[in-house]
Each structure stands twice: as C-alpha cells, then as structure tokens.
Amino acid sequence: MLTKRAKATAGIIAALTAGVLALSAGPAAASGTYSGLAYVYGAGVFADDWGNEGIVDQSHNTTSNATCLWQRVLWADGILADNEIDGDFGSVTAAATRIWQSRHTSATPDGSAGQITWTAAGRHLYNSDGWQSGNTVSYYQGTAHFFYLSRDSDGYYHFPDYWGDDRKAGYNYRTC
Q1: Coil, strand or helix: which one is 109?
Q2: Whose CB among 45, 62, 79, 149 lies 3.0–4.6 Å from 74's, allowing a Cys bridge?
Q3: CB-based contacts of 157: which residues, under 8 Å, 6+ apart?
Q4: Which pTM value belongs to this model?
C-alpha cells in the first residue's frame, strides 16, 4: 500500500512527464490531424482540402515543393515577390507568413503554416466558374493576384512554378 507521500510523488512525476512530452511533441504531432501524406492532398469537395496539411516553417518541411506552394499563396496575397518563391522557408517567408496570418486568421501569428493557416488559405480555392465546389481546383484567389492549380486523379495538388512548369506539391523534395 502506498503512503500519501508516495502517492503525491507519483502524481507529481506523472504531471511532469506529461508536461515534458507535450512540450517535446512537434507541431505536426501535437495537432493530431496531419494526413501524413507526402503531398498536399485533397478529395471530394475541395473547399476543405487544406485543413489537414503538414506544417511548413523554419523547422518542418523547410525546403520543399509544399513550401513553394505556400509561397505562391503569399505572393497571391501580395506579401512575397515572384523572386522570393524558392521553396526555402527562410526568415523572409516566416515574416511574410506572420503578416498573412494576421490578415487571414484569428490565431496568434507565429510564422508557421500549420493546420489553422492552411485551412484559412483553403477558403480561397475556386473552380473555373468561381464556386468552392466540384472536384478540380482551378485557382487560388489572393487579394493581389491569383494562380492556377489543380488536383490530379490521385488527389495530389499541382501548381505552376515561376516559369510555368507544373510542380507537384510534395513535402519531401524541392524542384521549384
């Protein structure tokens, strides 16, 4: 039988362990909603496609085509210039992301494109006749520009790079 002191000590250790585990979990693990796929993905009606995307920031998927896609969003909303879309999530992209978050989300701007940020961006996806319905995305409508993008038969998003070449929005490589 445990004494009161032993029970109290065990409770403190359990609380401290839970706290350390919570702090050590990365944002993707902490969100619990990341699809786990290697590509920006969607299915069915696309208005909610980006609600379970992985994180792109200075610690996660830092150099990737998913980062390029996120930078295209920042460009469409007038925050990044064309020549700043390079697939590398550096300090300029982090600062631009904080600006975008302050304009488009109610969350505290943290410079990390995670679930809340991707979900907010997904609200700007439209098909060719301007509606957020259907199975193929035609464009992202930003406040300054728009860009075409598509979702292939596997559900993977594609977007044009600076030169107009088709790029698949993957997390594990950079070709843009």
Answers
A1: coil
A2: 79
A3: 39, 40, 41, 42, 49, 69, 137, 149, 150, 151, 168, 169
A4: 0.78
Highest mean pLDDT among 15-19, 80-84, 136-140, 153-157: 80-84
Q: 9 CB contacts (<8 Å, ≥6 apart)? A: none
Q: How far is CA 117 from the centre of its chain?
A: 6
Query: How many domains does one find in the chain?
Result: 1
Confidence (pLDDT) at 52: 86
For the stretch 55-107, pLDDT in tens is 999 999 999 999 999 999 999 999 999 999 999 999 999 999 999 999 999 98
Residue 2 lies in a domain: no
Q: Is residue 98 part of a domain?
A: yes
> Does 51 map to a domain?
yes
CATH code, domain with 79: 1.10.101.10
Parent domain of 163: 40-168
**Can you read off the two tokens belonging to residue 95?**
């600062």
Q: Could you tell me the pLDDT band of residue 163, with boundaries at 50, 70 and 90?
A: confident
Asked whether residue 10 is domain-assigned, the answer is no
